[in-house]
C-alpha cells in the first residue's frame, strides 16, 4: 500500500511517501520555495517525493493530511479568553480553515488527478489507523496479548 502524507497550511509544510510501512521519500517545501517555515500547500514537495520514488500519482492508494483542530483545545481557548484575539487573527484563522478544508482540490491540482480520486469516498474508505508491520515484541501474540 502506498500512502502520501502531507503536513500542509501551517509552518514547515512537507510531504512523505510510504510503501508498506517503509519510507520511500520525504521533502519539506521550504527546500524548493527558499522561504524558512513556509506555510501553504507543499505541491513541489509532493512532486519531488513521487519523482524520488519513481512513482506515478495514480499509484498512490491513500492520502493523509496531518490535521487535528482539537489538539490543545483547552490551551487555545484559555489563550483566547485571556488575550482577546484581534479581528486580523480571527480572519486569518477563518481563511486557513477554508484552505485546509479544500486540501483535496489543492492536491488533485498539484498531481493532475481528478478530485474524486483524492477525496475520501464511502465506496473506498480511507484507513487512518496504522497498518502494516507489527513490532517484534507483539509478533506471535493473539488479540488479547497472549502468546
Distance between the termini: 28 Å
- The global form is elongated
- Mean of residue pLDDT? 76
Helix/strand structural class: alpha+beta
Largest sheet: 4 strands, mixed
Residues in helix, %: 25-40%
Write the layout of secondary structure elements.
Layout: E1 2-7, E2 14-19, E3 22-28, H1 30-33, H2 43-53, E4 62-65, H3 73-83, H4 87-101, H5 103-111, H6 115-118
Helix pairs in contact: 2-5
Description:
- This protein is of the alpha+beta class and 147 residues long.
- The protein has a single domain, classed as Nucleotidyltransferase, domain 5.
- The protein is 37% helix and 16% strand.
- The chain is built from six helices and four strands; from the N terminus they run E-E-E-H-H-E-H-H-H-H.
- It has helices at residues 30-33, 43-53, 73-83, 87-101, 103-111, 115-118; strands at residues 2-7, 14-19, 22-28, 62-65.
- Strands 3-2-1-4 form a four-stranded mixed sheet.
- A hairpin with a 2-residue loop joins strand 2 (14-19) and strand 3 (22-28).
- It is elongated.
- Mean pLDDT is 76; it is low at 122-147.
